[in-house]
Every structure is written in C-alpha cells, then in structure tokens.
Amino acid sequence: MSSLRLTDTSFVVLGLLDAAGAEATPYDLKRVAQVSVFNFWSIPHTQLYTECERLAEAGLLTERREESGRRRRFYRLTAAGRKRLEEWRDEPTDVSCELRDPSVLKLFFGGDPVRLAEAQVSAHKSKLEELEAAHGAAGFPRGMILAAELGMEAERVAIRFWSRLLEERRGDG
Amino acid sequence: MSSLRLTDTSFVVLGLLDAAGAEATPYDLKRVAQVSVFNFWSIPHTQLYTECERLAEAGLLTERREESGRRRRFYRLTAAGRKRLEEWRDEPTDVSCELRDPSVLKLFFGGDPVRLAEAQVSAHKSKLEELEAAHGAAGFPRGMILAAELGMEAERVAIRFWSRLLEERRGDG
DNA sequence: CCTATCATGTAATCCGTTACATGATTAT
DNA sequence: ATAATCATGTAACGGATTACATGATAGG
C-alpha cells in the first residue's frame, strides 16, 4: 500500500486493465498488448508480471490467485488505481518524444546509408502493413485509432526517407 | 579489458569520441552531444561518466587523468574501440523503432485529444525550430545532416497530427 | 506416449535514473 | 568578497532486461 513512484510501464498496465474492464492475468495483458500498445510502446512480458505485483502492493490493483493447477494470478483495477490512471492521462505533457531509432543512430555516426536503407525500407514496410491490418478491425475507442493513425503516418515518413537514400545511391559524401 | 556487453549508450559514446577525433572529457562529450545526438537520442550526463569508465575498463578507450586541479579524466578511442564502433555501424538492423511518445500513450488510453494537442503542438513547433536552427550550421558529415532531416520531418508530421485534432474539436466519439 | 511448442512465471544482473556533493567561475 | 550559477563528478537505488525453469497442450 506504500506509494511508490509510477513509471510509464505502470500506466501501460493500468491502462490495459482499464481497457479490459475485467480481471486479467499478466499473460492476458500480454496477448492484447501485442496487437495494440506494443505497436508503439513495447514492454517485455516478464515486466508485466513484476509490474502487476508492484501495483498490487501499492493498492492500485487487487490480486486473486487460483487455488488449483497453475495458481495463476488475476488482477483488477481498484478505485485508487483508476484514479491514478485518470489523473495521469488527463494531465498533458510538454515533453516531446525522441526518435531513438538505432538505424538513425548508425547513420548519424557514419554508417553506410545505402546498406542501412536496404534493411530499413523493408522493415518499415512490413510494420506498416501490420498496422494497417490491425487497423481494419472495428470497435476500438477513438484514442487507439488515432494513435494507430499517427503510427502509420510515421512509418510512411520513414519509408519515404530511406527509399530516397536508396535511389540516390550514386550520392556524394 | 573484459568483454562486456555494449549498449546503444556505449555506441553513442564511442561515436562521439570518434567524431571528436581527439581526447575528450565526459563533459566535452556532453556539450557537443547536446546540440547533435541528443536531439534524437538523449542520455543523462551522469551516464557519460560511468559509460566512459566502463568502456575504458573494456579496453575500448584509454584514460588519462589530470595531475593538478580538477583531476579531470580525458578519454580517447583505442584501435579496439574504433573497430567495435565500425562493426556496429556497418551492420544494418531490421529492428524498427517505436514511437514511445508519452502523449500518444495518454491518447491511446483515453486522454482528452484536445487538451493533449494543445501542449503537443507548441512543444513540437519549438523542437522543430530548434532543429532548423542547428541545421543551418555547415560542415557536418552527411549522416548527421540526414538524421537531422528525418528528425525535422518527424516533427512536421507530429505538428500536422496534433493540429488536426485541435481543429476538429467538435469531433465525435 | 513422447516430444515440441506454447503458456506462465521467477530470479539475478546490470544499466539508467535520481539524488547529492564539491570545485570553478562569473557577477555584483 | 560573497552569492549565485555552472562545471564536474560520485553513489545509491530501482526498474528493465536477460537467463532460466516448469506446467500445459497439441501433434504425431
């Protein structure tokens, strides 16, 4: 019940549980996240277990454990948990994000544009297709749809950028 | 001299030292980084100190310490360090990056689009101006220029995205 | 029934962040 | 000179990643 610091990871978990609207195991969260949040903010599955534990200790989740078999743990948002989630998402941030793209880092420090571009064009294309496919399904809340649209737009920008490098392969120095 | 695992942070340090082409203190690295790499991949300044130490232990940097006064530490790339850097940057990655934008996360989980957009539009606009200003200076290697151009393009996309949300403020649900 | 793969989870390690601290330098 | 700010650095803590491990389930 101690009031520990919440990280972005914490809010991903709180948000997923809120969206689920019901009890869920960390594994449930992982499955739904993999086709939604993880598209633009991924978290290793092991962290979902420890984070649920942490949040439960802080009183933001309740924990129920199966008696038999796997003894799986089911978590649910408490009122306090929902409150923290709402406070967080209603408070706008002015921190602007960073690209933090490993390939751009290599490019920045002198990596060969053409070789990098070859890998990046196909990577971003398949990512875009993935997003478009997931986007087809209906019934998502508006925020999720908007986030996906921005993600797709970002992919298109990346594709254009790296494709252009590929074309100018006679480029100078 | 033990062969520890190198992280992206390691390569930022190696890359900065390579670009410097001379001995530098962690503080030197910080100053040059703040107007270049940190625009799209930032690292807390304290980490530059510990990372230089780590890399020196691994034999990728040499360390020279001032005798008098501040007893500052100066680092320089070794041949092994340069080799690791080159290997890294010449090997293309297929990992595509993630947005990892805290505001998009809030949007995704139901944050109010208009309130978020208000803060984001101005944040991204000032970031774009900053990038454009830094971009004016000449004499940078091509990779750095390209990285900056992608960064500016990404900012423009973000500005368009959030601005559109602002305009449609009568928007549905 | 045996094996391979997927589901589910724990533990240890280590990087990255935060908090703090002291030496220079500038301004007044 | 003294305060204030900037430069430079250290140490502790905790979150995130990695490595590993065991229980279910399906296919042959």
What are the SSEs and their pairings?
The structure is a homodimer of 173-residue chains.
Chain A lengths: L7 H13 L5 H9 L10 H13 L3 E5 L7 E5 L1 H12 L11 H7 L4 H24 L5 H26 L6
Antiparallel strand pairs in A: 1-2
Helix pairs in contact in A: 1-4, 2-3, 6-7
Chain A binds a DNA duplex (28 and 28 nucleotides) through helix 2 and helix 3.
List keywords for this structure.
homodimer, 173 residues, DNA-binding
Commentary on this structure:
The structure is a homodimer of 173-residue chains. Chain A is mostly helical and 173 residues long. Helix content of chain A is 60%, strand content 6%. Chain A has seven helices and two strands; from the N terminus they run αααββαααα. Chain A starts with 7 loop residues before the first helix and ends in a 6-residue tail after the last helix. The first copy, chain A, binds a DNA duplex (28 and 28 nucleotides) through residues 4-5, 7, 9, 25-27, 30, 43-47, 49-51, 54, 69-70, 72-73.
